[in-house]
Design brief:
By secondary structure, this protein is α+β, with helices and mostly antiparallel strands. It is built from two helices and ten strands. It has helices spanning about 5-35, 90-95, and strands at about 35-50, 55, 60-65, 70-80, 100-110, 110-120, 130-140, 140-145, 150, 160-165. The protein is elongated, with a radius of gyration of 22 Å. The protein starts with a helix and ends with a strand.
Length: about 170
């Protein structure tokens, strides 16, 4: 092979290799840009394996997810019909109708994993500190789905949770 052709092939090969090395980083940055923002909860459904689905906080829960470009994740979800609490029992009921946690996230393909640093329930510490969700963004809609996991609130049951959001402007 002539030196000019060899040099041209080496340049093409080097270009292909450098592009393939940069693509995952560029892809991750583009995915993060799609996820960054403030999202309003539209639905939360939990499928109990071998049973039907449930809406843990009723058909119209409230919630917000904030994802920052610096890698922070904050989520708060509450039941729709919460009332002010005066008694100890009423205050306990409010805690049972709320989920909140925050932490740093990382993205790998279609998975986002949050390392929980604080939460409304200590269930998200220790073994449950890494919260992994599969995500799908379609326009201004975001769907988060858990892998099949052992339920923290339904002992002995496996569940898959799906949380849907719309982007807030």
């Amino acid at each position: 092979m002539k030196p000019a052709k060899s040099r041209a092939l080496l340049i093409i090969l080097a270009s292909i290799i450098s592009c393939s090395l940069l693509t995952p980083v560029a892809f991750a940055d583009e995915v993060q840009k799609q996820l960054v923002g403030t999202w309003k909860l539209t639905a939360w459904i939990v499928q109990v394996i071998g049973e039907g689905s449930r809406e843990p906080y009723g058909p119209n829960p409230k919630g917000r997810l904030v994802i920052t470009p610096e890698g922070h994740w904050i989520i708060v979800i509450t039941g729709a019909n919460r009332q002010p609490a005066k008694t100890i029992d009423e205050k306990a009921a409010l805690l049972d109708s709320m989920l909140a946690y925050s932490g740093k996230y990382r993205i790998e393909g279609d998975k986002i994993t949050t390392k929980v640093d604080m939460s409304s329930n200590e269930i998200y510490t220790g073994a449950n500190q890494d919260q992994t969700r599969f995500f799908k963004v379609e326009g201004d809609r975001l769907a988060l789905r858990t892998p099949e996991i052992s339920s923290a609130v339904l002992p002995g049951k496996k569940v898959v949770g799906t949380i849907n959001f719309e982007r807030e402007r």
